[in-house]
């Protein structure tokens, strides 16, 4: 086993390891290897830094022999992962009266005093944690500052560099281990025992007689990824902190607004450009370089990956791959699947500060702002005036669909990741925050009240962040959605690597067009009841549900048939030879019964009844637990005319497409909420009969594939029996999770955060598939189904189909495809590519 030193000088051959010395130390070694001019730097290992905070005394003399006899140093943090942050840099360690005199000879007396004074204040406030107000003295000098320090600390300011350096190292180590730092890096995914290394570097003075200064340069626009030199340079300065908001800071490139480094120091600017190109090729990334000029000589102090948006990240990796600096596989792996959501939706600008008034479940990603409205009618009115609005409801229903179409975002008091509002919003690409438990909505007064009593009324403007689940006061700046040629290129590469198909959940021809634009390989779930959310259609559907005799019901179904046929024709026509899976009618009746006064009145007019008669009929149809009541296959068996109508509409539409385009359509028909094989047998018998009738009418055989949506635990357990009647099983993991846990997917948001925080559940099971419980049922169903029918097609069509970890689990079970909402299709495609590439790597080890 290697005996690794506690610290060592960074040289091209030094044994610097990222997991031992941190990301910054390793990056500095790479800069040295690239022959860039980096000041002498010593790397302190993670174990040594941990020791420093606890040890009473450590001899730093041997460490200092790596520098000159009178060194002035800086210390920077070097966490294992650069994204975890770390303590701020401390400059000019070693300054004392003797060092000030030495600096005076080289830099000038004024510069030397400035450096000395800056260090005294930095050491006092940042290291010893004194209040910076003690230095608010007119014409403060180093001598005065030392006296102020001695009065406050009741001891002399340490003049020894060993003591100064030890106190700095100790302070930074303890800050890293503090509660605030732990919480901050934990929010970025760092483990509890995350390690911190430190680097000690010879100071390069950006202050002096000849051209001196400090700056930062990057070579792309952070928002777009466009190639461009961006940054600032400040003459006679040290470090990057002084660059922010300083009017004296120069531009880097020629600019009509003021002086530039390119004009004043063209040779230096050319060297910086060359350094950027060297880093791009050698470090295989776009880097942001911190540099210092000392007496006209350029030093590279540090380099980090350039801050970037998701859009810029895609531009960078595709550029690297096309220049063959990285492989296409690596380009794909560098883009996190969840980051794709930032490309498809507007987001709150990073760093924008707003007052958070409420939090809920981040049910549909993206951000928007607009005035609050409390009804669909108000949302439509706002949209007609060109105003952005946020629709606020306790929970949404089909009556709210038109309002959701008109709104810019949706906020609900109830519901979770798989509630009506969440599912519809994801399909529409609308930001949605659901399950906001600290508000109380009053639809009559058109307002909501926070738990602290604060009131927000209709017309008030808020920003809704569906990515974080936050509601903020006022209008925050948003980044635009942005996909383009580079994104399409990257996704094309991803598609060549993945080995599981990705389909989309799409319910209308408009949804299907969107799904196809995201390169879905078919429709994995078309919820046919969602085709009736338009007001005219909803009324006819309600007539069919309300009918208490066959004559009235058949009359309503005859009106529904051409509507369904038209939609199916358009969907088949759009998708062409790609598969389309249509789920038969599955309405939890409470979602389709009118609840508002206007809805009841409209229903009464349509059916020539009184409002009271309609209300009585609603009450007679109401159920104690409608999600487990008369829905799905139960409705299809007890009222078989509904499924007969749908089957005929499907077969006639497929025949019409074949007639017009010559494409043979073989629809996939899915039966919902099955729990017994006899249910499938009964539905299949009627399907076959309708298919035979239509075949005779159109003059050719009508073909179709029959499958079930596995949502009940019993269907999973009896998959072997059911497989006898079907060609595919598609797992509806939303309801499967609900039934397995005994959780209401609409109400669990009220306590789920507490459950996750206390580690009752590792994650919200409606957000990430429960692989040990629900997953075991899926595993059993796959094994038993394929055991009875080896060619059985298996898939997931719940919202888990867009979750990367869930996709990996489904792939390992041998499923053929996953299906998710259209806006999650690119995420699923990229995640599937990651899984395939990483598995291939493991196989080759």
Structure description:
This protein has about 850 residues and is α/β, with parallel strands linked by helices. The chain folds into 4 domains: about 5-200, Dna Ligase, domain 1; about 215-335, D-amino Acid Aminotransferase, Chain A, domain 1, CATH 3.30.470.20; about 360-480, Phosphohistidine domain (Glucose Oxidase, domain 1); about 500-585 and about 630-845, Alpha-Beta Barrel (TIM Barrel). It contains 34 helices and 31 strands. Helix 6 (about 110-125) runs parallel beside helix 7 (about 140-155), helix 13 (about 330-335) packs across helix 18 and helix 33 packs across helix 34. About 50% of the residues are buried. The mean pLDDT is about 90.
List the defining traits of the structure above.
8-stranded mixed sheet, alpha/beta, 4 domains, 845 residues, Dna Ligase, domain 1, 31 strands, 34 helices
Q: Strand order, biggest sheet?
A: 12-22-21-14-15-16-17-13
Mean pLDDT: 90
What does the radius of gyration come to?
33 Å
CATH superfamily of the largest domain: Phosphoenolpyruvate-binding domains
Low-confidence stretches: none
Structural class: alpha/beta
Any idea what the CATH architecture of the largest domain is? Alpha-Beta Barrel
Please give the alpha-carbon distance between the first and last residues: 23 Å
CATH topology of the largest domain: TIM Barrel
């Amino acid at each position: 086993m290697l005996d690794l030193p506690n610290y060592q000088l960074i040289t091209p051959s030094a044994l610097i390891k990222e997991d031992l010395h941190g990301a910054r130390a390793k990056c500095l070694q790479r800069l040295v290897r690239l022959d860039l001019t980096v000041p002498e730097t010593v790397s302190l290992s993670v174990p040594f830094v941990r020791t420093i905070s606890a040890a009473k005394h450590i001899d730093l003399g041997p460490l200092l022999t790596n520098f000159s006899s009178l060194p002035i140093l800086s210390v920077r943090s070097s966490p294992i992962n650069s994204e975890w942050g770390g303590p701020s840099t401390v400059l000019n360690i070693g300054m004392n009266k003797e060092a000030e005199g030495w600096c005076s000879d080289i830099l000038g007396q004024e510069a030397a005093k400035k450096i000395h004074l800056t260090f005294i204040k930095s050491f006092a406030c940042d290291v010893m944690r004194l209040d910076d107000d003690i230095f608010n003295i007119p014409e403060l000098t180093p001598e005065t500052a030392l006296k102020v320090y001695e009065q406050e600390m009741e001891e002399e300011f340490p003049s020894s560099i060993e003591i100064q350096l030890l106190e700095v190292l100790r302070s930074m180590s303890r800050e890293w281990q503090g509660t605030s730092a732990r919480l901050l890096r934990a929010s970025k995914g760092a483990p509890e025992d995350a390690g911190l290394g430190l680097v000690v570097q010879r100071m390069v003075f950006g202050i002096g007689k000849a051209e001196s200064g400090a700056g930062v340069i990057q070579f792309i626009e952070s928002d777009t990824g466009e190639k461009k030199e961006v940054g600032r340079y400040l003459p006679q300065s040290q470090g990057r902190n002084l660059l922010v908001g300083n009017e004296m800071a120069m531009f880097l490139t020629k600019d009509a607004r003021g002086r530039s480094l390119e004009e004043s120091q063209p040779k230096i600017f050319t060297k910086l450009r060359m350094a950027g190109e060297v880093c791009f090729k050698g470090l295989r990334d776009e880097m942001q370089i911190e540099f210092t000029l000392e007496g006209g000589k350029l030093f590279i102090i540090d380099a980090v990956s350039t801050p970037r948006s998701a859009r810029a990240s895609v531009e960078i990796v595709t550029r690297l791959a096309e220049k063959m600096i990285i492989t296409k596989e690596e380009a794909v792996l560098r883009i996190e699947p969840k980051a794709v959501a930032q490309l498809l939706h507007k987001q709150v600008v990073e760093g924008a500060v707003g007052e958070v008034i409420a939090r809920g479940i981040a049910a549909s990603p993206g951000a928007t702002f607009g005035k609050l409205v409390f009804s669909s009618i108000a949302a439509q009115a706002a949209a007609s005036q060109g105003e952005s609005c946020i629709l606020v409801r306790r929970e949404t229903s089909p009556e709210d669909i038109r309002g959701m179409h008109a709104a810019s975002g949706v906020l609900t008091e109830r519901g979770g990741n798989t509630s009506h509002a969440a599912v519809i919003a994801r399909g529409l690409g609308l930001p949605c925050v659901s399950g906001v438990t600290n508000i109380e909505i009053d639809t009559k007064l058109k307002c909501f009240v926070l738990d602290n009593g604060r009131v927000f009324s209709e017309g008030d403007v808020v920003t809704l962040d569906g990515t974080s689940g936050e509601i903020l006061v006022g209008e925050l700046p948003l980044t635009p959605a942005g996909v383009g040629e580079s994104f399409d290129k990257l996704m094309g590469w991803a598609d060549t690597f993945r080995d599981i198909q990705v389909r989309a959940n799409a319910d209308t021809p408009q949804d299907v067009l969107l799904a196809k634009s995201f390169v879905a390989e078919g429709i994995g779930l078309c919820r046919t009841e969602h085709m009736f959310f338009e007001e005219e259609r909803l009324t006819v559907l309600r007539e069919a549900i309300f009918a208490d005799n066959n004559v009235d019901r058949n009359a309503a179904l005859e009106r529904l048939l051409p509507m369904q046929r038209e939609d199916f024709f358009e969907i088949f026509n759009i998708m062409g030879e790609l598969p389309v899976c249509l789920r038969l009618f599955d309405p939890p009746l409470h979602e389709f019964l009118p609840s508002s006064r206007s809805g009841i009145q409209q229903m009464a007019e349509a059916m020539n009844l009184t409002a009271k008669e309609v209300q009585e009929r609603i009450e007679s149809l109401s159920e104690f637990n409608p999600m487990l009541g008369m829905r799905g296959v139960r409705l299809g068996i007890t009222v078989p005319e509904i499924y007969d109508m749908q089957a005929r509409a499907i077969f006639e539409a497929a025949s019409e497409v074949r007639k017009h385009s010559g494409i043979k359509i073989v629809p996939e028909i899915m039966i919902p909420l099955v729990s017994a094989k006899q249910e499938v047998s009964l539905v299949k018998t009627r399907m076959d009969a309708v298919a035979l009738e239509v075949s005779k009418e159109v003059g050719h055989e009508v073909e179709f594939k029959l499958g079930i949506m596995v949502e009940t635990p019993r269907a999973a357990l009896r998959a072997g029996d059911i497989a006898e009647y079907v060609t595919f099983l598609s797992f509806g993991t939303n309801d499967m999770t609900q039934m397995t846990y005994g959780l209401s997917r609409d109400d669990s948001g009220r306590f789920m955060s507490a459950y996750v925080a206390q580690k009752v559940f590792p994650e919200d099971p409606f957000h990430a598939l429960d692989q040990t419980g629900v997953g075991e049922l899926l595993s059993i169903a796959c094994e038993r189904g394929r055991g009875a029918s080896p060619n059985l097609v298996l898939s997931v069509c719940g919202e888990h189909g867009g979750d990367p970890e869930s996709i990996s689990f489904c792939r390992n079970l041998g499923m053929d495809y996953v299906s998710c909402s259209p806006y999650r299709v690119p995420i699923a495609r990229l995640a599937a590519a990651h899984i395939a590439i990483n598995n291939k790597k493991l196989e080759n080890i």
